[in-house]
Every structure is written in structure tokens, then in C-alpha cells.
Amino acid sequence: MQSAPTANTSLKSLFPFVVFLVLFLGTGIALTLQGVEFAFYQLPASIAIIPAIFVALYIGKEPLEEKIGQFIRGAGHENIVTMCIIYLLAGAFASVAKATGSVDASVQLGLALFPDFLLLPGLFIVAAFIATAMGTSMGTIAAIAPIALGFVESADVSPALIAGVIISGAIFGDNLSIISDTTIAATRSQGAQMKDKFKTNFKFAVPAAIICLVMFTVLGDSITYQSTTDIQFVGLIPYLLILALALMGVNVFVVLTVGIISAAIIGAITQSYGLFTWISDINKGFANMQDIFILSLFIGGLSALVKHQGGLSALTHKIENITRRVSKGNDKKAAGIGIGMLAFFTNFFTANNTVSIIVTGDTAKELATDAQLSPAQSASLLDIYACISQGLIPYGAQALLLGTTMGISPVDVVMYSFYPMVLFVVVLLMFKRATK
């Protein structure tokens, strides 16, 4: 059991994240109420987080040089750098695919395949399928967001709703995939077998997905678009390659790089797409990702400071104590909620579901042992609640990437992120029966 004699003091180190959220969300909400257009763009998140970083540096007790070193090491964490490279490759692929006609070809095929009222559930299934195969919600969003933007331009549909469908499908697949880093982290931390965790997760994920499919079918009933039979099938090749490589389990970096190169080759064959135009489009794609690239680095550094100052340990200790008091007689449901809240709130302050699982894994295992929950059940809860939180925070990588690609606020994205919301309710209602 964790020891945290300075828990109340350490909780103060979470204050920088409060500063960030108040500045970013508070400014956006206030400007929205005043009728300002693009309210959440007036104070970019990459700027709103800077005062929070200064607060974290001030709170820390170590010498300034050491605190700056902690920040830099957090910004350079493997998971943060991985996300940033995905941002760049996703931006480049979206730019090149758009310029060479691959996006248009994919959109026209999608519009031809799906009836009007099935466009949204169809997009959810595609996103869920790719995310399950790739094991990454970020890679999935990077691959299909450009196509989704084409749907917005071709059909009478809200970009926020389309973004919500994509993030819903991506979170479903990431949470359920056996090759996802969140799944691997959850099973290892709890000592669970992958197949057992999958079976437990399946009981919650599939009912939530079915409910979402019904919701998206109803919401998509009024969508109208003009499909065409004049589809440039050669433009589909980059996306077919991406899908094939994803199903083969190829690294997401390789998948996106192949997409960028293949789209350029198709463009060179069909429309004299030149080398320097290709380079220019790649550069434009990189530039489009500048804000979320910077924000991700800053969030990584800020999270490292907060963790080092004891904020995350104090948070998990606090939730553990509350759970133990509430779970009279080691009630499984109370312990399950405690494990879920550990992952949910830790992810809220780190914006990284894999990191949140690693941070809370030991405490979750203790709670599960006391309440006689199986390793598969605790691993499933960790993974589920971390992914729920990740799908609902506007400063998470998924919402930021979708917002940038679709040209909308990340807050709009999470407002339509229905799958994490539904999954949250499903787990609360079904957990006790599922653990009998």
C-alpha cells in the first residue's frame, strides 16, 4: 500500500493543470457566450499552457536548473516524441493525399458505398476496424481524418459530428485491440492474460458500440449528398496500402510514410505532380501541426513536473483511501469504481492513457486483490477508464489532431465523442453483474 505522508501538500502540485484548464476552457467559454467566432482559437492551448508551466516551476522545491531538466525530460519522453512524429506524418499525408486526389477518390467511394443514413455508422465501423488492427487510435485518426474532411465538404453534415464518429471508433478499437500499448500496459501491470482481458473488455465495449451505432444511424438520418459513379480508383491505392499494412501490424510510422510516398507516385502518374510540389505539400502538412506539436511537448514536460512533485502519487493515494472507505466488506463494484477513477483522473492530468495506466497500475492491483477482482477485470477497468478519459479531454492527442485536420475546436470534437460517454455508463451499469 502506498505511503503518502504529504499527500495534501502534493495535491497542490496539480494546480498548474487547473490553471491551464481555466485559461483554455474558461477563455473559450467566455468568448463563446459573448458571441465571438472561433472562440476557442482566440487563446490557443499551446499558449494557455505556458503560465501553467511557470506555476509548476515556481511550486517545485528543487533548484531551477533541475526543474527545467525535469520538464525537458518529460517533453522528450518516448510516448510524447512518438505522438509528435505521428502528428507530422499525419499532416504531411493529409496534405499530399489531398493535393493528389487520393482523398477525393476515397470520399467518392465511401459516398457510393454507404446510403445516406448509414454514412455515420459506416465511418464508425471503418475507424473501429482500423484501430483494432493497428492498435492505435492516433494512427487511425491520422489515416482517415483527411477522408472525413472530404465527407464534410461533400455532404450536408457537421464537421464536429464527423469528428465525434471518428474518435469514437478509434477509441473503441484502441481499447479492444490486443496490440494496443494501453492493452499491453494494463495486462502487464495486473498480471493478466491478454485473451482473458479481451473477453472481459468485450462484454462492455460491444454493447456500448451497438448503442453508438444506433445513435449515429439516427443522427445521420438527415444527411444528404450527391454521390457519383465517376470514381478515380487509382487514387484509392494509398489508402488500400495503408489498410493492408495496418492489418499486417506494420508500425504506424511506416504505414504513414508509405502513404505519403504512394500518394506522390500516384499524383506524378496522373497529374504531373512534381518533386518540389511534393516537398512543398509535406512542409505545409508539417506546418499545420505546429500548435498541437508544441502543446504535446509542453504537456509532456508539465506532466513530468507534476509527477515529480508528487501530484500524481497524491491523487492515486487519495482515490485509493476513498475507495477503501466506501468499499465496505471489499465490495467489488466499489473497488472497480476506484480502479476506474484512478485511471480516469490520472489520465485527466497527464493526457496520455498509457502513462496513466503505468502510474496507477500497482495501486489498482492492490485494490483488485483486496476485493477479489481477477487480474483480467482490473486490467480491463484500467484500460477502459483511461481510454474514456482520453476520448473526452479536449487537450488529448486525438481531439487535437482531429480538430486541426477538420478545422474545428477540439472542444467541439469531444462534445460529439459519444462512445466514451456511452461506455462510461455501460461499465457502471454492467460491472457488478459482469463480475459475478
Automatic annotation (TrEMBL):
Q: Where are the transmembrane segments?
A: 40-59, 80-97, 117-145, 157-173, 204-224, 236-269, 289-306, 334-351, 413-431
A Pfam family this protein belongs to?
Answer: Na_H_antiporter
As for subcellular location, the record says: Cell membrane
Provide the membrane topology annotation: Multi-pass membrane protein
Domain Na+/H+ antiporter NhaC-like C-terminal positions: 15-220, 239-429
- Record keywords: Antiport, Cell membrane, Membrane, Transmembrane, Transmembrane helix, Transport
The entry assigns this protein to a family as follows: Belongs to the NhaC Na(+)/H(+) (TC 2.A.35) antiporter family.
**What is the protein name stated in its UniProt record?**
Sodium:proton antiporter
* Native source species: Thalassotalea eurytherma
